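Researcher: Going back to the complex we discussed earlier. I've cleaned up the inputs and rechecked each line, so this should be the final set. Can you rerun the prediction on the complete assembly and write out the structure?
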Amino acid sequence: MMRPAMKLPLGVVLAVAGYWLPPLLGGSTLVYNTLVVTAIFAVMAYGQDIVLSDLGEVSLVHTAFFAAGAYATGILAADHGWNAWATLAAAGAAALVLALVLGLITLRTREFAFSLVTYAANVVCYTICYNWHVLGGSDGFVGIPPLDLSLPGLRLTALSNKDLWPYAYGLLLLVLYFVNRFRRSKLGHAALMVHMNPPLATMSGLDPHRVRLLVFLVSAPLTALGGWLYAYQRAYVGPDLFETYFLVLMLTAVVLVGRRLLVGPLIGTAILMLQKSYLSFGAYFDKIVLGAVLVAVLCLFPGGLAGLVQGRRRRPEAG
Amino acid sequence: MNVWQQLANGVIMGHAYALTAIGWTLLLGAARLVNFGHGQMYMLGAFIAWFAMRALGLPYYAAIPLSVLAGAALGAVMQRAMLRLTLQQNLVSLMIVTLGFGEIFEGVAGLAFGVKPQMIGSPLNAMNLQWGPVLLTVQDLTVVAATIVMFLVLRAVMAHGLVGSWVRMVAEDPLLTQLAGVNVARVYLGIFAFEGAAVAFAATLVAPRTPIITSMGFDEVIMTFVVVVLGGVGSVGGSYVAGLALGVFSAFFGALVAPAYTTAAAFLIMIPIMVLRPGGLASGGGLSR
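Model: Rerun complete. Updated structure for the full complex:
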């Protein structure tokens, strides 16, 4: 383990250096595409990470939060001309409202009952988006304008993936900082206690139901932030956002490297996106790889890649 | 609206739901496991039958046992991979692993069988029966009959057989069962092989009624969740009744309100039941009911 005094400066150096990663890797369009979607999907995965690693539940409705962020952004930007700051707030708010409603209903259940109910909620959301013309129906929304975060006297727009990189990277750093803070916060500690030892949590005066709901409410807007940027990056939102691909992607990203490791989901996402960009033999092949990685990690080395590297040295938490 | 026709459709659909869910009933009741790859296994069962007929030239009646065998093998392989997690009762990881298997199955099916919708050419589907105002096919009647037989057999095995008592013991307490000298790993393997075989069997009978496509797993089988939950988890008789009720509800909801929202409506019924009776899910031992 590194001494805490060393951790902060190293983190800052890595964070600054990361910004120049795309030019260091050659700066081609493919490099920028890969790194931008890595940042977006990592942001998406961090919402799931909090629920899975800290609360110990598998939420199958996080694709709906991702879609909520993307849909709010797409509809308001394409049809109502909102700028990116306004859609950012709207994406977070949409996910928060959805999470509040779903959380109040679903968080009374645990483990497979929770997963089943969240899966059901996800299918209901998908059915509504697919069939209701107000939400674009099966066609979705096209013609989302490029990202425009301009402030008075400062032009901040992004037309290509290369232009998007600073914003995607900035968003990723903010989310990393936030998740780090969350794990040190009162709520973060409470979540872990509710997960690992519910009777102790109750005896300590915590209300498990309230803690679970609060963590859920924190996680949903995080995932929605990924959806917000994804809507601009793809310039299209549609019901395909509910596909299990995104769900399996975020779960794999979380478990691949190791749970409760701050950079785990980021590295996991990066590995999966590198495969998709550089080692792909088509969409079906990617599905097989994604599923096989998920199965192999959990069945063969449940501690993730970090567990392999560290060998027998135990991490504090086993999830 | 032809009420009798809708009622008949509902009864047939209900039996199809119940038959598709029967493997899950045992899985959840006995092993306390869920299989989010169930939908993709249904899809594979249908496509293996289709492939056996199209590429190998087998008749429909030979394609059924072939698909069932493949399903059983698939279920057994899955459980073998998940054995350690199963014995640890690590439910969270198990759920994620089954999602991963579903993703693999869908990718493999896409590579092997292509993207185009296909039809399983069952000869039973071409035999029409007219009974008053109601039009049926022999395929429909086969689904109903097979479902009734399967549920009666499963119930009898669970209530009276030695295998049934092992499964009930594993459901109660896997560790104690192991101490009693039963090979728990083998019981789990059998349960998963049954789940795979049962869903493949359901697919070979139910899927010829509509076109099949490799991406259908997600949609086709969500009703299974509703059946198992409404029926009371692990209850064999309950699943049958729940499937039937859900089929009739879907037929009339589709005819009177909107077919597109049938699934959503069924789930909206399920959610409050799951949330208000979580105890019913955690408590077990209802297998023989």
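Model: Worth noting: Residues 3-282 of chain B form a domain with the ABC transporter involved in vitamin B12 uptake, BtuC fold (CATH 1.10.3470).
Researcher: Good, that matches what I expected from the previous run.
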